[in-house]
Structure formats: C-alpha cells, structure tokens
Amino acid sequence: MGPSKPTSMMLTKELAAVRLDDWAQACGDALAAGDRLVTLFGRAADDVSRGESGGASWGELIVTAVLQAADSGLYVLRGRSARGAAYPSITARHPSAQAFERELWEQTGLVPEGHPWLKPVRYEGARQQRMGEHPFFTMRGRDVHEVGVGPIHAGVIEPGHFRFMCHGERVAHLEIQLGYQHRGVEAMLLRRPPLALSTTIETVAGDTSIAYAWGYCAAVEALAGVQVRPEAELVRGVALELERIAMHLVALGGMATDIAFLQGGATYGRLRTAIINATQRVCGNRFGRGWLRPGGVRHTLDQARRSDLLATLVAFSKDFAEVNTLMLSSRSVGSRLHGTGTVTAATAAQLGLVGLAARASGLPVDARQDLPGRLYSEHPIETLTEGSGDCWARMCLRMREIDASLCWLQQVLGAAGIDLSGMAQANLGPLYPGTLCVTLREGFRGPVVQALETGADGRLLHYKLQDPSLQNWLGLAMAVRENEISDFPICNKSFDLSYCGNDL
Q1: Contact predicate 500/488, CB 8 Å
Q2: Which domain holds residue 308?
Q3: DSSP collapsed to 3 states, 68-81
C-alpha cells in the first residue's frame, strides 16, 4: 500500500447514503475506534442524491462526514434526511464534534438531540440580526463577576466577543462568540466557474493564502484528471514552508510583545519581514498570492531565485537562533509562560484539536506526516511535539517548527539535479461529474480542509471550506480556565487563531 494522500476523490453514486440515525451511529462508532473527524457538513439534496436512491426522492438533505483512519487515510460516511429532522448528537459521546454539529444545525436545521451546547457558530441567514440574544453561559455566586471584551477591539484586530466569568482575577470560564463577519464565502464560490476561484480562495484567510490555494488547486486538478509535475509540487511545498515560517514569527513576536520582551518583539518582526519580502521577490506578493494556480505554479524557481532564497535563509537562521536563545533563557519570559494556558493531552484529544495547538499538547497530528502524498513521501519533514501544553510549549514548538522548515527548505533548494524552473502550467478541462473531492493541506495553524462536489453536469454543487481555527477556538477557552484574566492576551496569541477563517 502506498502512502496516504492529502487528496481523496470518490464517485457520489458509490457513497451509500443511510438514514440519519444510522449515520450518526456510524460516525460515533468510528470516533470510538480512534478515527479522527476531519469535517462534517450538509447540503440540499439534488439529482446526485436522488440517483443514489435509485431515482426515489427520499429526502431533502445530504449530510457528509469525512474521517481519517490511522492506517488507511480519508474516508466518507454519508447520510440522508428530511428537513427539520433530529438525530442523536455525536457530541454527547465525542466532544470533538461540537462545532461541526452546531454548524450543521445552523445551516440545515438538523437538530442534534442531546448536544450539550447547541448555539450558532456564525449567526447565518435569518439569525444575523439576533446576535444580541446569544445564550451565554452564566455563573452565580458571591464575588462572581463577568468581563466582556469586544467585539470591537483596538488596532486592526478582527471582531470577536470574549465573555469572561471570573472569581476575583481567576477565570472560571471563557465563552468566545464569533460570527460578526457575514461574508458568505461558500455560497459565493458557487457563483463563478470552478477554475476561476483562485483569487477568492487566496483571501479566505489572508495569512494562510498558500495553504488555501494549494488545497483548491489540488482539488480541481484531481476533478479534471490532471496530475501536475513533481517539480511544481515541490515549488508549492517551498511556498507553504515560507508561509509557515512567516506566520509563526507573527505569533512569536506577539507573545514577546505581550510580555514586554521588546527585543524579541522587534527582532521577530524584522525577521518576518525578511521572509515575506523573499516571497515577494519570487511571486510579486508578500503573502504568496498569485504564486499557485490550477495546473501548476505561475512563478518558478530558477537558479537566481533559489540562490536568493538560500542566502536569505542562511542570514535568517543566525539571527533567529540568537533571539530564540534570549527568549528561552530569560527568567521573566519563563515565569510568564510556564504553566500558563495549559491544555492537557487528554483535553486536546477530546476536543479534537488540530495543528500546532494539538502538537503542543503532545498529540502527533500533522497532515504532512499522516497524509504525505507524493511530495512529503519523497521529501519528508519531521512531526514535532511538546508535552506540557502551555504557552511555553506553544512558543517552543513554533521555534522548532521554523527550524524544521528551514532545514527542509535548505535541503530542497540546495539539492543538485532538481530543476524548478521553466515549468508550464497544465491545461484543465471539464471536471468529472458526480464526484466528491476532499483535500487537506497542513497550514501553519493546522489542516485547511476543502471539499468540492460536482453534479451530473460536472458543475460544482457544493464547496466546503474549513479553517483549523474552527476546531481550536474551544481549546483556547479551555486554556484560559484557572488562569488570571491578565493571562488571556498571552494565551490568545499563543494559539493565534483566525477570526475570518471561522466567520466564512
């Protein structure tokens, strides 16, 4: 058996859509067996769903769960239901499903009976004008008080409301309410031809442009029956690791600034500028927009660009090691970060945390290792973890992941016999009809998930986007418990989650 792939494609007519209760039971059994829930979503039934039932119109909604098995990659469980139906909540047994079921309820009306925290994720549609009625969790008791922060924040921070329930300075519970940005991204993606969506996908979460663009490109290429050259995949990997380095530096700089370690804040910011400027010299944009396109890449790496990147990375590595030494040896840094914002491995597993947030709690989950595909099978990159699950662990892991990306980039860019210049983009034709394609790309926060489904005519029926922040926001809320409220900015920056990635 070959390596598991980060792109999985299946004919919808071969996906048996079962009754909703049976689907929920199958999902719960899979999670109990140790499989991971990648995403869960619903859509209105159409000609494909009627075809699955032999022509009988048995329902109005199709629900899809994508899971990842440890030994066999991605697979799909599909259910069917009439609108307004109810089913036994998966969350009641497996908390990792909580955000997925809330989103499914909000978008389709399907009710997960027994869900312990059923409230909107984004306040979509008719609910948009009812955010003031949000059923916040409340606490009672002598000396218990609430502190509300946001949704309007200072500077350029995106909107989000944080409701702290405190006993004195100690946080007993934090509830995070997002959904203030009503962009309607998924619906918008169905209004344009599928091969013309690059510029939109790149801006879903602007600091994760490469991860989103790569997942989208991989999906439409698979649906068009096109396999890009290995060299193009390698250039995409270079772009992704440059993005990872730059964005981890944002969090490191923010953490240093929040604890008044000003040398770290200034130096990490300067180093980030060096990386994003190097990206701009390759493709014309500091965030990598316009670099990746369906069929390949628009900007290749000739010898001059490779030499420029290598020189940048060598100079970067020296200064990065020096500032890391200062951060790691500072007593004031250690006293603020050790034991602050701890999420245990058990809690991280129960909540289904992904990406760096999971790895900092000791869970070795990384799509580059778990679903390596062709690129990371030929050019592997080590999965790193930390065990303490606190702000210190998340800081250290970012440093170590940057070092791993630097090592990987220097090996790839410095390797003889690999020509990364002069690659023509492959032309893509019509997409396969009646097909579901799921892609994962491990961005700097975690796996960016995209699911594209075509109808009988080859047009897109559904486009599901998922930022890793959706699964990790509750992890931040748990991290703040039993900490002082003044620790929240450090915890928040150590997770460094996306508001707009959540508010699609």
Answers
A1: no
A2: 185-502
A3: EECCCEEEEEEEEE
Is the separation of the CB atoms in 306 and 412 below 8 Å? no
Q: Please indicate, yes or no, if residue 149 is contained in any of the structural domains.
A: no
Secondary structure letter of residue 484 according to DSSP? B
Rounded CA separation 321/313 (Å): 12
Task: Give the Å distances, CA to CA, from 60 to 18, 20, 22, 78, 127.
Answer: 13, 12, 17, 14, 22
Task: Name the 3-class secondary structure at 23.
Answer: helix
Residues 6+ apart with CB under 8 A from 260: none
- Give CA–CA dist 127/263, Å, rounded: 46
Q: Based on the domain organization, do 115 and 204 belong to the same domain?
A: no
Q: At 48, which CATH number?
A: 3.30.460.80
Measure the CA–CA gap between 444 and 441, rounded to whole angstroms: 10
Strands 36-44 and 61-69: antiparallel
If asked whether residues 214 and 113 sit together in one domain, one would say no
**Residue 65 covered by a domain:** yes
Give the pLDDT mean for 394-403.
98
Give the CATH number, domain containing residue 277: 1.10.645.10
For residues 208 and 69, state if they share a domain.
no
Find the range with the poorest average confidence among 75-89, 115-129, 444-458, 470-484: 115-129
Q: Tell me how far apart the alpha carbons of residues 393 and 423 are, in angstroms, rounded to a whole number.
A: 41
Residues 8, 445: Cα–Cα separation, whole Å: 21
Q: What is the mean pLDDT of residues 242-254?
A: 98
Share of the chain above pLDDT 70, in %: 97
Beta strands 73-81 and 17-19, pairing class: parallel
Determine contact, residues 426/228, Cβ cutoff 8 Å. yes
Over residues 192-207, mean pLDDT:
95
| Mean local confidence (pLDDT), 34-58 | 67
